[in-house]
Design brief:
By secondary structure, this protein is mainly α. It is built from 16 helices and no strands. It folds into two domains: 179 residues, Growth Hormone, Chain: A (Up-down Bundle), CATH 1.20.1250; 173 residues, Growth Hormone, Chain: A (Up-down Bundle), CATH 1.20.1250. Helix 1 runs antiparallel to helix 8. The longest helix is centred in the middle third of the chain and has 31 residues. The N terminus and C terminus are likely disordered.
Length: 396
């Protein structure tokens, strides 16, 4: 291939990587800063009476279900049109949320969740076709959390003050508008090289058993993270100490640091050992919380929780890629995450009172104890990734 063609191909590849990173942010921004959306709902007179739980369930369920079935129904041609429609749906439903009656909010969030799910599926589909999907996932996540943290600050501290809380609904989707304006950078098909499969081929692949078990591990891990997130603020309100009021900020900063560290270490550390140690630390965290902690210890563990929450997912993705060389199962990771993250607190709320935080944490403990068991089982089933062995097919 002539040098000019090589350079042109490299530029197109980098442009596509950046664009799908933008889609990753657009698809996951609402999930990353959902508390800001909740704050906008509760402070806007028109939407103050909305059932937040039902809205969250509608959005997250649509998000997960679209990812599960996107491989089968996603149109194989004209990727730009499909992406444009998803971004337009996000922008229009966000705008509609500012003026539609409460009775139609669920429909808005269903459409928004479906569009976000497809954008997320496309970004994971792109990751699945690259040589180092775990590292790319870490990079995308680091950017997502950095933007989300900035948006959280600007949304509540600047936008709401200047334009009212209802403007936050649109503010959250700014990155969707940016992506729509840069649509020329979107590839016509989801294909990285001749050796890899496109989005349409994803549907034709059968689910592999080992990575399917690993997805269950991710599901329990995500259920744990969401359950603890629900009960963390009630716990903090009953603690004293100089840093307790900053626990959320510290945890969010640690999430960014965790994602950044993963970009450097995900191809260097052994997957199974890293996940075992990380999940083990989270088991200790929950047990410590249940036995009682002071404010300072709570903040430290909240920081560790935030760090590991975004540090471990790229290792999961790398492990799944090693178990399934087609990397098809990577596209199901966000569905496993979000469906479990939404169903976990919902099931716990049916069995435990909101004031019984120890009872709630007991379910989080059960979930984080089960998570490594499923991943160990997956490595035993997979011949390419035996237990305790360095994953060999991901370059160091």
């Amino acid at each position: 291939m002539p040098p000019e063609s090589i350079r042109s191909s490299s530029v197109r590849s980098k442009t596509a990587t950046a664009f799908f990173g933008l889609l990753y942010i657009a698809g996951n921004m609402s999930n990353a800063i959902y508390p800001l959306f909740v704050s906008a709902l509760s402070n806007t007179p028109q939407t103050a009476s909305a059932n937040i739980g039902q809205l969250a369930a509608a959005e997250f369920l649509a998000f997960g279900l679209v990812i599960l079935f996107a491989g089968k129904f996603f149109p194989k041609q004209n990727l730009r049109l499909s992406v444009s429609l998803c971004l337009a749906v996000q922008l229009l439903t966000a705008l509609a949320t500012t003026f539609v009656p409460v009775s139609t909010l669920i429909a808005c969030r269903l459409l928004f969740g479906a569009a976000s799910g497809l954008l997320s599926w496309l970004s994971y589909g792109y990751m699945a076709q690259t040589m180092r999907p775990g590292r790319l996932a870490a990079i995308y996540t680091a950017f997502l959390m950095s933007v989300a943290s900035l948006w959280s600050y600007l949304g509540s501290g600047v936008v709401a003050e200047l334009y009212g809380y209802s403007s936050i609904f649109v503010f959250i989707t700014i990155m969707s508008g940016v992506a729509l304006a840069l649509m020329y950078a979107c590839p016509k098909t989801l294909t990285v090289s001749q050796d890899n499969t496109g989005a349409g081929a994803v549907a034709a692949k059968k689910l592999s058993f080992a990575p399917l078990i690993a997805l269950l591990s991710i599901g329990f891990f995500s259920a744990y993270t969401s359950i603890f997130w629900v009960y963390s603020d009630p716990i903090a309100q009953h603690l004293t100490g100089p840093f307790v009021k900053y626990w959320l900020t510290i945890s969010l900063v640690c999430q960014i640091v965790g994602a950044l560290c993963a970009t450097v270490l995900v191809e260097r550390l052994p997957v199974v050992l890293t996940l075992t140690v990380g999940l083990g630390l989270l088991v200790v965290q929950i047990i410590t919380m249940m036995t009682g902690v002071n404010g300072t210890v709570f903040v430290i563990w909240s920081g560790i929780y935030g760090f590991l929450g975004y540090f471990l997912i790229p290792f999961y993705i790398r492990g799944i890629a090693a178990m399934d060389r087609t990397s098809v199962m990577i596209t199901y990771v966000p569905a496993a995450q979000l469906l479990s993250a939404s169903l976990g607190p919902m099931l716990v709320s049916m069995l435990v009172a909101e004031t019984d935080w120890k009872g709630g944490l007991s379910f989080a403990l059960a979930a984080i104890l089960i998570a490594p068991l499923f991943f160990w089982a997956a490595t035993l089933v997979s011949r390419k990734s035996p237990l305790w062995k360095q994953v060999s097919d991901a370059p160091a």
